[in-house]
Amino acid sequence: MEPASTIVKLLGGPSKVARLVGVHRTRVSSWKRSKDRGGTGGRIPQSHHEALLAAAAEQGIALAAEDFIGSRPGAEDARQSPAADRTTPGSREAAE
Predict the structure, then answer these.
(1) Least confident of 34-43, 61-70, 79-88
(2) Dihedral, CA atoms, 73, 67, 13, 26, nearest 10 degrees?
(3) What DSSP letter does each residue of 31-65 carry, written as one string?
(4) Which residues, including other chains, have CB under 8 Å from residue 48's CB and lie 6 or more apart?
(5) What is this structure's pTM?
(6) Which among 72, 10, 78, 80 is positioned nearest to 41, based on CA atoms?
């Protein structure tokens, strides 16, 4: 679920993100599950935003606070999470 799926993928996956924020990998995976399945519905807890933004900046990944806000149910904006089109590890080198 978005935006968690895209952000976790950009930052290297659940295990790496778990190390960055100091939680177990399964906690990070729960961010990508729907609420009816015990997840957060794609939301990353706000308490982790600062650490993830800092890690992204250190890795040269364009990630902004707005990327943590998913679209509202029923919203007609069909775009992917803004982070989906951003630099991923290794893509900067490939583009140069």
Answers:
(1) 79-88
(2) -50
(3) TTS-GGGTS-TTPPPGGGHHHHHHHHHHHT----G
(4) 21, 23
(5) 0.73
(6) 72
